Amino acid sequence: MMHARNPGTPLTVDWFDRVQVNRPATERRANTLTTRRSVKKQFQAAWLVNAITCTDLTTLAGDDTDARVERLCAKARRPLADHIVEGLGLPDMPKTGAVCVYPTMVATAKHALSNSGIPVASVATGFPAGLMPLDMRLAEIRYAVDQGADEIDIVITRAHVFNANWTALYDEIAAMREACGAAHMKAILATGELTTLSNVYAASMVAMQAGADFIKTSTGKEPVNATLPVSLTMVRALRDYGDRTGYKIGFKPAGGIKTAKDAIAWQILMKEELGRDWLRGDLFRFGASSMLGDIERQLEHYVTGRYAASHRHAIA
């Protein structure tokens, strides 16, 4: 990462306990993001290539196998067909920001990505519910790190948010950060289950105070996952945290992000709210799998003037 790692701060409740997020106003602002700015032609192609480099290419299925993870890693290394890269005039094949898998698949992914420079991320802490004893969740983090994980995506205990038990939430996340060691920690807030945007803001702030390197919207398993209003609330929180501390925190929307259009929308959010620094993989990631296929499809159309049949694009 090109910036100083967030060391966290002592729990400071007055940074967030009186913040009330106006949902209608937030939704209006989010709705204007994609209508006020239009990205077309070569500029759209450039934004889509950038989205690839910010993607955590993910498989978190109950039937994951070594072979599936190896295919995913091959796609992460070469996300575009050679003729698309040539047609775009790119000097090198772009690579995804990371590959994200379950802890038991970390070693497979690490081997498949050797010498690629692509980090391996792993979910942990009883993903997706997180309802396991804390010592077991910490042991899972340590297992994933021992297997070679470079990044750990943890989940918070939602009940601590509902009960406004900020000390318990802070202590839990701080212990997880310590267990991560040198691995960077992304704190999943499961925003679709937090009920209010004010809860989302508070949980974001506690996670950052406890030392999170990234805050992440969703596990992808909730009824509602990443949305632009929730994302706007979270990036305003990390902007406020940065203003107070001087530290830059990353942001990862995940779940339900499937299309090239989505990739453009979330990048516009980051550019409008936080600036160009948050258009790089060290501060912004998509949690996605199918989105990459649509990006490749759109770039094929840009290069050739036609959409290719789906079987022409290698799948993960």
From TrEMBL:
Record-level GO BP terms: carbohydrate catabolic process; deoxyribonucleotide catabolic process
One Pfam match, by short name?
A: DeoC
Alphabetical UniProt keywords:
Lyase, Schiff base
GO molecular function terms noted in the UniProt entry: deoxyribose-phosphate aldolase activity
Extract the SUPFAM superfamilies matched here.
Answer: Aldolase
Q: Which reaction does it catalyse?
A: 2-deoxy-D-ribose 5-phosphate = D-glyceraldehyde 3-phosphate + acetaldehyde
Name the GO cellular-component terms.
Answer: cytoplasm
Q: In which pathway does it act?
A: Carbohydrate degradation; 2-deoxy-D-ribose 1-phosphate degradation; D-glyceraldehyde 3-phosphate and acetaldehyde from 2-deoxy-alpha-D-ribose 1-phosphate: step 2/2
Record-listed E.C. numbers: 4.1.2.4
PANTHER family recorded? DEOXYRIBOSE-PHOSPHATE ALDOLASE (PTHR10889)
Family membership, please give it.
Belongs to the DeoC/FbaB aldolase family. DeoC type 2 subfamily.
The protein in question is named Deoxyribose-phosphate aldolase
The record lists the organism as: Pararhodobacter oceanensis
Task: State the gene name recorded for this protein.
Answer: deoC
